[in-house]
Task: structure prediction
Amino acid sequence: GGRASITGGYVTPEDNLALPNHYIYGDFLSGRIWALDIATMDEQVILEPGGLGLPALNISSIDPHPSEPAILVTNYDPGIVYSLNRVSTSEEGVPEVSPLAVTLAGPNPFRQQTSIRVESPGPVRVTVVDLLGREVAQLWDGPAPPSPLVLDAPLAPGVYTVRAEGVGGSTSVRVVKAR
Result:
């Protein structure tokens, strides 16, 4: 079921511990991804629609990551590429996504600036929200940031929430801007 518009993928190498010699493919309409064992022709679903905290996907391409044991999945609209990184693997070979995390990497409370570390398995949007829930600054919107983000927005003294929203859901940390 769920094979309305198959998107071709690739064959995993023999040294892939989770899925050696498997053809990875998906369905544009359902967002489901399968792994087909080339030797036995047995298949298994490795990503259900909406699984791993991902939005509903219209899969337009599936490719191996060039330097990591990961699957790159492109969502047709809005053209975001998700990296399904294998943190650990169950006996069935289903990939798991590392969780979304946001932590302080600088002082709190802070006067001028502080740093926020974000760990994300894919694209992430990081914003600063005041106590009334209004977005007062955007720190990042794109692939996982490579280093800590600097929070140096012109904020009034007070309590704020730094919120990260991405593939792994959403998470936040409170910060205090001192006088």
